[in-house]
Amino acid sequence: MKYVDEYRDPELAKGVAARIAAEVDSGSSYRFMEFCGGHTHAISRYGVEDMLPKNVAMIHGPGCPVCVLPVGRIDDAIRLASDPRVTLCTYADLMRVPASRGASLLKARAAGADIRMVYSTLDALRIAEAEPAREVVFLAIGFETTTPPTALAIKQAKAKALRNFSVFCNHVLTPIAMRAILAGEEDEATPLDGLVGPAHVSTVIGARPYEFVANEYGKPVVISGFEPLDVMQSILMLVRQINEGRCAVENQYVRAVTRDGNARAQREMDEVFELQESFEWRGLGMVPHSALRLVEAFAEFDAEKRFGIHTVAAADNPACECGAILRGAKKPTDCRLFGSLCTPETPMGSCMVSSEGSCAAHYAYGRFRDRSRARMERAAS
Amino acid sequence: MSLVMKPVRRKLDVRNGRVDLSHGSGGRAMAHLIADIFHDAFDNDWLRRNDDQASLDALEGRLVMTTDGYVVSPLFFPGGDIGSLSVHGTINDIAMAGATPKYLSASFIIEEGFALADLKRIALSMGDASRAAGVPIVAGDTKVVERGKADGVFISTAGVGVLPDGLSLSSDKARPRDAVLISGSMGDHGVAIMSRRENLEFGVEIMSDSAALHGLTAAMVRAAGDALRVMRDPTRGGLAAALNEIAHQSNVGFMIDEELIPVKPQVAAACEFLGLDPLYVANEGKLMAICASEAADVLLDAMRAHPFGREAALIGHVVEDERNFVEMTTRFGGGRIVDWLSGEQLPRIC
Fold first, then answer.
1. B68, β-bridge pairs
2. Is the whole model's pTM more than 0.90, yes or no?
3. Cα dihedral angle (B337, B338, B343, B348), rounded to 10 degrees?
4. Any chain A CB within 8 A of the CB of B346?
5. Which single residue of A238, B90, B324, B338 could bond B159 by disulfide (Cβ 3.0 to 4.6 Å)?
């Protein structure tokens, strides 16, 4: 696969790993948060952590749109789908996310709700056109990456005067969430030394929106691609910034990211969406100006208005540590449900649902390392 | 001359007709459907007797029996259809025991309204597959259900085979240091199906690998004999599920090497696009074998000498591990678990 295999070359990886090992200060520790679940997935799937020195730790952040959606919003989606007039269209990962009282969209579908998995907003639009007697609601979720396609679908629906299409908007914003994590960091035991920023978000918004992280919080950021070599190179760039006493936003993903991003995509988003005053994130609580809603000009396509949705906050399972794990304050293995009551087959928390969730990635790919390491440490002592 | 008029038997309008409830009623319409569609396609002495069962000569050796249901969507896909798949799948279940498949039966559950032309096409494909494999379909059944109660057509096939004396392959027989071999590239069938199901076009046609593997397994048994411990066709859940099942049943672990597992570039690219892992994607014409390590080279040569095993590869070894983990050295140089699939593989959001 041209343009993919190049970024998974084991010889190059060995070279970058050797550079990281040579450049880290053995007396220091380096804690880097990869904000995005895509990075968590790549790190786990390719075994990147095996190739890092012991004093470089990767902290899995909240950047999985499925993981950060609060229980109350999934309850809303289930209520919506249970309306016999409604066909709810959604991305597949969301189907298994636990809602209140053990419910999920998958269970709602089995009970008779018309819930359909789609690959794009345009699939939902096509269903609305093909079935004019149904109220087709697209459950929109995701960071800045998936927001422009939702904006386009809403504009198309308006252009086609589709009366039976609406969007249940749950689009959230990356830089604001990053600020919430950094602002709450004083409460956490071990601070972060740098952040790996998601490249796909920056292809839309550019690198500039992260400059506050360097300027106000004094932490370096490297915007990184999602291939394992991208991630390793980004880690090396962070190590170098720290060793040189620098603190800036650097761009590893120069093949697609610019400082200012994609102006057209930003215009489309601005035309259709505006900031919500506040939005609840799983793990972060209510975060001001961290999510989007439809502007008045497109209000007719807002499912919340059309169906009178008023979200009622619902609590996570009290034993579930997803909140602390999403903030990077705890590791999946710090949760007493991990791997016993909470597994990918029976997820108790959202981090165990999506393959990009910290717990699911660690369970699927990394859990053998814990025991191997424990064994090695026991042998050494 | 008789005064009683004999009714003129009109052939089914296969080109334009559709299955209706009368075709499952047990009456004349059903008899015509069976005669014109299934008997024509499967034609053999047993079916021509029109009995409710087939009388078979006693077989020497131990009997192996299996049954399987086929509910694939879409019914027709690049490289095959539900008909040939239902023949290949059941033959392979028997072949994985090291047995020789002898007879098949087939049961059809057809949805009212299903096009007779499609049914004929499926039956002809089954007939071709069974003749090519040398395994006749000797008994069958047809049911028609109301519209909406099935998805076109469901097929169940059962198979009987014979096992040579002394051969005993089983999923609990893998031992540490045994070699793990596969017969070819992983993920072709699942990606071929998905490319049609989701209307995704990848620029190149990805064909299902659906095939009857009893010729290949016979050659493997001849080459490796007792050194062969387990054979398994990695269908649903792919190679990952097959390895995890065997790890638990044999109470061992596996250490495999991603670099050694063949995956066609177009399959790898499609999986990349969909966010899927080819190790979890279904195969219908591939097998995995575990054998004593000293027999690995001989077995590999025998596999590569067969048309369905040309790309055979040794991909790893059985290891001692009370946790029954399937571990893999990634192509990138790191390590990871290849775990059971949780639910179904779902494409990621971003």
1. B157
2. no
3. 80
4. yes
5. B90
Phi, psi of B290 (to 5 degrees): -120, 130
B340 neighbors B238 (Cβ within 8 angstroms): no
Gyration radius (Cα) of chain B, Å:
22
Under a CB-based contact definition with an 8 Å cutoff, are residues B338 and B328 in contact? yes
Q: Which of A6, A11, A41, A46 to mutate to test the interface with B (most CBs of B within 10 A)?
A: A46
Q: Please answer whether residues A30 and A238 qualify as being in contact, where contact means their C-beta atoms are separated by less than 8 angstroms.
A: yes
Answer positive or negative: Cα dihedral of A209, A211, A215, A218: positive
**What's the full length of chain B, in residues?**
350
Residue A125's Cα: distance from chain center in Å?
A: 25
User: What is the model's pLDDT at position B341?
Assistant: 75
Quickly count: other Cβ atoms within 10 Å of residue A162's Cβ: 19
Our measurement of the distance from residue A227's CA atom to the centroid of its chain's CA atoms, rounded to an integer in Å, reads 16
How far apart CA A245 and CA A242 sit, in angstroms, is 5
Three-class SS state of B315: strand
Is A91's CB within 8 Å of B349's CB? yes
CATH fold of A1-330, please? Rossmann fold (3.40.50)
Q: What is the ipTM of this complex?
A: 0.72
Question: What is the per-residue pLDDT across A87-98, written as a single tens digit (0 to 9) for each?
Answer: 999 987 788 888
CA A57 to mean position of chain CA atoms: 19
Residue extents of the structural domains in chain A: 1-330, 331-380
Contact predicate A161/A84, CB 8 Å: no
Contacts of B268 in chain A (CB under 8 A): 1
User: Is residue B109 predicted with pLDDT exceeding 90?
Assistant: yes
Whether the CA torsion A369, A374, A375, A376 is positive or negative: it is: positive
**How near does any CA of chain A get to the CA of B328, in Å?**
10
pLDDT exceeds 90 at position A184: no
Q: Which residues of B are less than 8 Å from A92 in CB distance?
A: 346-347
Cα radius of gyration (chain A): 21
The minimum CA-CA distance between B349 and chain A, rounded to whole Å, is 6
Lookup result for tokens 């915007």 = A223
- pLDDT confidence of residue B4: 67
Name the 3-class secondary structure at B155.
strand
For residue A138, the surrounding DSSP H or E stretch is strand A135-142
Calculate mean pLDDT across residues A349-368: 81
Interchain proximity A47–B323, CB inside 8 Å: no
Which residues of chain B does A96 touch, with a Cβ-Cβ cutoff of 8 Å? 343
**pLDDT > 90? residue B187:** yes
**Pick from A87, A85, A105, A86: nearest CA to A96:** A105
- From the list B216, B55, B71, the residue with the least C-alpha distance to B149 is B71
